Fold:
Amino acid sequence: MTQSTWDAVDAYFSEQLVGHDPALEAAAAAADAAGLPEIAVAPNQGKLLHLLALTQGARRILEVGTLGGYSAIWLARALPADGTLITLEIDPKHAEVAQGNIARAGLEKVAEVRLGRAADSLAALVEQGVEPFDLVFIDADKPSNPEYFRRALQLTRPGSLIIVDNVVRGGAVADADSTNPAVVGTRALHDLIAAEPRVTATSVQTVGSKGYDGFTLARVQS
Structure:
């Protein structure tokens, strides 16, 4: 199998099951025009996040890593009219693009972009004692994944779902001798999850237009 095959299969499923979406296409185009990294989730992956949020019956969603707001739009669309999505972004340019994309999608009343280091923003949310989140999507700098996950546990409730993206690292996650900070952080995350009695979790490998990677799902038990 080759990348061209994965691209073709993703394109087929996206055409069949996602379809034409002006707001999402405009968001992707705006991110490209602004020179943002091409690391947003694929359309079918965005739809998966949307379906998971719907299945979860989420009223409150937290996203760590906004980029251009593409995944935030997918997640926010799953919320009820009185729902809330808080998405955290460290880069002012990325946050500006995301805010514009969210507004054009008509979601500015439910989705809020918070600018700053995710670690600081998460600590502030804990300090504020905010209402627990029903779903947390972690897709930011990988070395910090263990810290983000610990904070996510403080900001959720039994029954909440935590999703961590890009955990396979092209297969490098299996290399215990890797010194790559993203791999080291990802392995530390899974050491943490494996030892954490408050969650039950699994990881899934994926191939597609974003290459070979995968995600981890963790359900908070207590």
